[in-house]
Amino acid sequence: MKFLSALALVAPVQAGLRFPCSTLTIQRLDPVVQPGMAPSAHVHHIVGGNAFNATMTGDVGARATCTTCQMSEDFSNYWTAHLYFKHPTNGSYHRVPVLPVQPLLGGSQGAQGGLTVYYTQFDLSRDNLAQQKITAFPPGFRMTVGAPTAESRSHIGLNYQCLTGQNRGALLANFPTAPCSGGIFTAHHFPPCWDGKNLDSADHQSHMYNTVNSDGFINAPACPSSHPVRVPQVTFEQTWDTTKFNSMWPSGTPNPFVWSFEGNGYGTHADYMFGWKGDALQRAMDKSECFYDGCGSIQKQSMTVANQCKIPTTIDEETDGWLSALPGMEMKM
Questions:
Q1: Source organism's superkingdom (predicted)?
Q2: DSSP letters of 267-285?
């Protein structure tokens, strides 16, 4: 699958938002699953608004003053576990760098690391607004997808691709089994149906329902009566620059890449905390057939401005370089 193949499908009309967010911080914080814990259990790669901290409640968009995302009214936070290389012979770990997702469109050049975010209304070529309204998330909303303890695929839309030149390769449910000359590409697709009542749930997933039954950017079948509110389909994409470690992966040996919680590839997961200003996201979702440009109503900022948004590192530990153990995993060694 070529990098541009997914985008080629959207011509001549395009639906939804697509934009880059540079890295905000890399540290052990997780205000959804482990609120108030500093440090949290494992390292996360975090983008978005600078209101991010160990304990986040209420309207975080109203408290943030900058964002690493190109859409300047989006102060949401998006995060995933961080990828590490585990040396096959000495067992040490090294953090894998993150690259901006290609292609970069619409003046988004200059992103630093980070990830690309999608909010789709139906699929990449249609919005279907005449048949079904898309309701933006309310302040305080949060959700997760996937689980670090998973031993098999836990959700459609959690996948890997082995980058080779300009080709992303086949969708995989687990890590590639051979070195990838262009790095490893990951995607996290969130459910499209909300119960319309709860901003969160005990497992951070039960207030949502997934009606999508195949991979990719496809339309979501009708929502059930238990979760009747159709929300934007949120997706994160990331490119992990695994290339510098390929020479250290002996031919024929198992995949040496691990997530920051050490578990297998099925444990990939992601967290989302809504933080758009005012009705900005709703305005975008009410706009017919827009893609990437802000739907004609959302202000964008230069990525050079977005890159200036940072938060302090509050967890005093080393997360990069060669480490004898993953941060937070020392007691498990």
A1: Eukaryota
A2: G-EEEEE--B-TTHHHHHH
